[in-house]
Specification:
The protein has 12 helices and 14 strands. Helices cover 32% and strands 23% of the residues. The chain has 2 domains: 9-171, VC0802-like; 193-235 and 263-391, Vaccinia Virus protein VP39 (Rossmann fold), CATH 3.40.50.150. The chain is of the alpha/beta class and 392 residues long. Helix 3 packs parallel to helix 9, helix 4 (92-100) runs parallel beside helix 6 (128-143) and helix 7 crosses helix 8. The chain has a 7-stranded mixed β-sheet with strand order 2-3-1-4-7-6-5.
Length: 392
């Protein structure tokens, strides 16, 4: 909503109570990515204030623009929340009173499609459906008093109860933040972009590096690396739930995007080499590349990893691998033997390169026979995977 020349009483309330005030935010992170998210916030600087790692993510403060900036630029969190209220409630009357005290009409569009997610732990109010049923009519009644809007947007409210203490938050992001708005073509079991970014950072990748992505799948590593190389923010090509809020100022958000676009660096030469044995994967990557000019830095080919020979003239860079495992490995293939062959190939032809590789367990990690690698547990798709990093 843009502020008119002659603002209404409602617009004045939004400006005074929402736009002009400091708020608390929370960046939700997958386990193990909290410190990485904090370091991203440190690089952004103002207007993000007092970032601090807490259980499940990173909390910070600032005006609404801080939330815009975080959604636009942060690569590691899965979603951004705006904290609305915190209170104690041991019974439904206390809950209803506290929910009624929130200025819902100032935060949400009047025609919002509200989704309420409730989690309870060690609280006397423990029935999540009953909590949602008590809260929904209160919120809906308040929205009817707001300025008429026609967004029809989905808005997700998160209510968390623990030891009778309630935390009420509004999802700023909408679709999870790993959805960059770029990959229109994917194949099965795609790697999430948030995890791809973490692996790129852990392997030491920076904008000037050559990247080899020889089991590329849908090209998540390659596309994320191209975005980093070209300085394209992860949220530049997507929309967000906060764009439907009464307090949203499109001119402010567009200014942030304009400033980001001024820093874009476009490369005409391929510096990121994606390949896969599956022709469907290569077709998907090529289709994704064709959608954006900055992805011209990626070259995609159908080739078996074991047939790749880096050119002697090619500077040593980073090689990232997400080998198939489980059902993706296929019948008749032994995982231990497969990872042992990968290790031999890397040692023989990629000596001196920096490596990041995902393994399904410690056993396959050992089969690589790359003792110089450091290991860490990575949570992905409900599984604890073992990632190896280091110089080959």
């Amino acid at each position: 909503m843009s502020l008119s020349k002659n603002p209404s009483a409602f617009e004045k309330r939004v400006k005074r109570r929402i736009i002009a005030r400091q708020h608390e935010f929370f960046a939700v992170c997958s386990p193990g990515l909290e410190s990485l998210c904090r370091s991203e916030m440190d690089e952004l600087g103002d207007p993000i204030l007092n970032p601090r790692v807490v259980k499940g993510g990173v909390a910070f403060e600032g005006r609404l623009e801080a939330g815009y900036l975080a959604n636009l630029h942060l690569r590691s969190p899965s979603r951004l929340l705006l904290r609305l209220a915190s209170f104690k409630a041991a019974n439904f009357p206390a809950l209803e009173k506290s929910i009624s005290s929130v200025d819902w009409e100032l935060f949400l569009p009047s025609d919002a499609d509200i989704r309420i997610q409730v989690s309870c732990k060690k609280s006397r109010l423990f029935h999540s459906d009953a909590i949602a049923q008590r809260c929904r009519p209160i919120i809906q009644s308040r929205l009817s008093t707001g300025a008429p809007q026609e967004s029809g947007s989905i808005q997700t409210l998160m209510i968390r109860a623990e030891n009778d203490r309630f935390q009420v938050s509004l999802d700023m992001s909408g679709a999870l933040l790993h959805r960059r708005g770029i990959k229109g073509h994917v194949i099965s079991a795609p790697l999430r972009e948030t995890l791809a970014f973490a692996l790129l950072k852990e392997s030491g990748f920076h904008g000037g590096d050559i990247l080899v992505d020889p089991m590329c799948g849908s090209g998540t590593f390659s596309i994320e690396a191209a975005m980093i190389r070209s300085r394209v923010p992860p949220g530049f090509f997507r929309s967000f739930a906060f764009e439907a809020w009464p307090g949203f100022r499109p001119e402010n958000f567009n200014h942030l995007k304009k400033k980001a676009k001024e820093k874009f660096i476009l490369s005409r030469e391929p510096e990121i080499f994606a390949s896969d044995l599956d022709p469907r994967a290569v077709d998907a990557v090529r289709a994704n590349i064709s959608a954006h000019e900055f992805l011209n830095s990626i070259r995609a080919e159908k080739i078996d990893f074991f047939d790749i020979m880096p050119r002697p003239s090619l500077q040593k860079g980073v090689i990232l691998l997400n080998p198939p495992y489980g059902k993706r490995l296929g019948q008749g293939q032994n995982a231990d033997d497969f990872y042992h062959e990968i290790g031999q190939k890397l040692t023989r032809d990629f000596k001196g390169w920096r490596l990041g590789i995902l393994c399904p367990d410690h056993r396959t990690r050992k089969e690589l026979s790359l003792k110089q690698l450091r290991s860490r547990i990575i949570f992905h798709g409900g599984l604890n995977l073992i990632a190896g990093f280091g110089v080959i």
